[in-house]
Amino acid sequence: MFIYRLFSTIIFLAILPIYAVIRACKGKALPVEKFGHFKTPDLDGKIIMYHGVSVGEVIALENLVKKTKETFPNCKLVITTGTKTGQEIAKKKFEGVADFITYFPLDITFCVKSFLNKINPDIVLIAETEIWPTFAQYCKKKKIPLYIINGRISDSTYRSYRLLTPFFKQLFKNYAGIFTQSEQDNKKFINIGAPAEKTQVMRNLKFDVKKIQADFDLGDGRIIIAGSTHKGEDEIILNAFCELKKEFPDIKLLLAPRHLTRETEVKSLAEKTGLPYGLRSNDDRFDKNDIIILNTLGELSKIYQICDFAFIGGSFNKTGGHNPLEAVVYEKPAISGPSIHNFKDIYWLLTQSDAGRVVKTPQELTEYMRKLLSDKEFYAKACSDCKTIFEEQQGALQFVINCLKTNI
User: Fold this and answer.
1) What's the CA gap between 400 and 372, in Å, rounded?
2) 3-state SS, residue 329
3) Long-range pairs for 185-192 at CB < 8 Å and ≥24 separation?
């Protein structure tokens, strides 16, 4: 570990000026908080720290952080991220919940020391696969219990880590526990050196999504929901719908643009189809319309329960997709385009069965929608798979809360 700290510090100091210039050219300053340079926050009492490197990890932590605040109201919550987008999401989601939000320190001795001296957490829980040797070693020195939660290792990362098993075997001695998403991840961690007695399956935090029961009666017909669509995706889903409408005249489309500022644009696209359309804000129904535009706030996650299946937007551009579990929790199969980096672990699990499907092209989207509409047995299995995967994955949130109860 000493050799790691020495070389990482030397390399860091050597490349820092170059890295800073590159970021400056892109108009991005290196956050000084990463150096442990920030005003010491006023955090009296016991401190629970969660780290999620970027958007996907922060989203995964949302329900857990809120449940932690509810369960331990007298504790202070510190949230750290590694990216600017992670910071933005954390500040949006944890306003009024977290007591302090900042950047995780660079894994350099003076940065880590400064950070831990200022925060002084009673426990640290790091989401997924953020492994930082210097940070881990100083947590051990300060007797701060350090956990990996929602742990996962991709196949490609696993192959690389296997070459460094002796290093990881020493590193994992600094951890109080390693809690993984699946049996496969559990075995991967043990195979690269994690102590078997410290490594357990906790399942996946992202599946701790609750059904929100509400009454929606928009009329008869098989309903397809296109949720959180972005510019360019409305055309894709409308073209697919119009083609399939010729074969399946009973189908209806609920089109929910991600940003309501695009309402006029989406209305124009719906009008061009020649099919009757209405607006949710007008309480329009499918009795007289083939398309309804969801132009109200806060209803999408609940209204998924009325659909037969859903297309999840933000996936035919560079957005990285949106949460398919909002549909799958209601036992509705989810379809996505190829851009899913915000939820790639979720889609990996969904696509192991027929609960979810990632398509590469608009034509492939149309064909898969056709299969769901025409093959009753396949559709029934897809719905059943949605239920099964939730039953298999839920429970992770309470697992972590129970861990906290033994430490706080």
Assistant:
1) 37
2) coil
3) 185/151, 185/152, 185/153, 188/153, 188/158, 188/161, 189/151, 189/153, 191/158, 191/162, 191/165, 192/153, 192/158, 192/161, 192/162, 192/164, 192/165, 192/168
> What's the sign of the alpha-carbon dihedral 273, 279, 280, 286?
negative
Q: Is the dihedral of CA 36, 39, 40, 43 positive or negative?
A: negative
CB 48 within 8 A of CB 122: yes
Residue 124's DSSP bridge partners are: 49, 146
Give the domains, in start order, of the chain with CATH numbers: 46-202 (3.40.50.11720), 222-392 (3.40.50.2000)
Question: Of 104, 7, 9, 109, which is closest to residue 50 (Cα–Cα)?
Answer: 104
User: Residue 4 carries which side chain, given as an amino acid letter?
Assistant: Y
Query: Running DSSP on this structure, what letter comes out for residue 104?
Result: P
- Tokens representing 131 are 């492994």
Q: Is the dihedral of CA 363, 368, 372, 376 positive or negative?
A: positive
Contact 112, 135 (CB under 8 A): yes
Token digits of residue 349: 């699990």
Q: What is the mean pLDDT of residues 284-311?
A: 96
Whether pTM > 0.85 for this model: the answer is no
CB 256 within 8 A of CB 281: no
DSSP state of 262: G
Q: What are the pLDDT digits (tens) for 93-136?
A: 999 999 999 999 999 999 999 999 999 999 999 999 889 999 99
96 CB-near residues (< 8 Å, 6+ apart): none
DSSP letter, residue 299: -
* 24-33, 92-101, 370-379: range with lowest mean pLDDT: 24-33
CA distances from 21 to 17, 36, 104, 146 (A): 6, 20, 21, 34
Where does the pLDDT of residue 149 fall: very low under 50, low under 70, confident under 90, or very high at 90 and above? Answer: very high
